[in-house]
Amino acid sequence: MVARTATRRSLGSRNLKLVEVEAVLAPTPNAPGKAEASEPLTLIDALLAEQRELTAVEEFARAHDRHEIREPHYKKLLPATAPGPGQQYAFEVDLDKCSGCKACVTACHSLNGLDDGEAWRETGTLVSHDWRRPFRQTITTACHHCVDPGCLNGCPVLAYEKDAVTGIVQHLDDQCIGCEYCVMMCPYDVPKYSARRGIVRKCDLCSQRLAAGEAPACVQACPSEAIRITVVEQAKVRGKFRPLFTNSTPKAAGGKVGKWES
Questions:
Q1: Which of 239, 207, 205, 233 is nearest to 85 (CA)?
Q2: Staple 176 to which of 184, 199, 214, 256, CB 3.0 to 4.6 Å?
Q3: In the chain, where are the structural domains located?
């Protein structure tokens, strides 16, 4: 004879689902006419059974909702105060921690609903070709939110604006005509043209998330905490372009051989 019973247990504030337990009843020689039930389901078994039923999304949501938005994991990845006069937000990347796993790229792509082949954050590898000084470095890059943005200066329809408080360079999709002048003006190849939408788009440093005290998608996704948001002095991040050739520049270089100095 088979009977079904249900048990409900709680662990702290965590309620478990009703778990059906099958008890096999069989007559025993010592107690004629009575039945002996199998051992009841333990709390460990109930927890494991519930865990097996959770999807990856549910597991992430449950883990994320255990703490306040910035506590405790993401607090150290965000600045303690908002930018003051002459300051702005900026990405800070510890390249020694970057493994090139592309978790930041995936998170950015998913949150912003980017098209195939469209990426606002990219990863790559710097390799030395000098056998006497071998060098290999994984890097991750995104928009620099420049103090004097080339994309903003090159746009003929004013589809870019730099926030006076945060310093974030934002693209206004409804004003963009898809001319791609900003793509040509940006020295970091940041703005990306979307053929499906017919406009250019770029990273906005997850400005809405920052305003709510939440870290950008790439910052949260990095398993090694290689990316963080910091506040920088705008006067210290300004750069100037110095040609490498002081007398004459080779024609093949188009007069653009040089490097940026701070």
A1: 233
A2: 199
A3: 2-64, 78-253
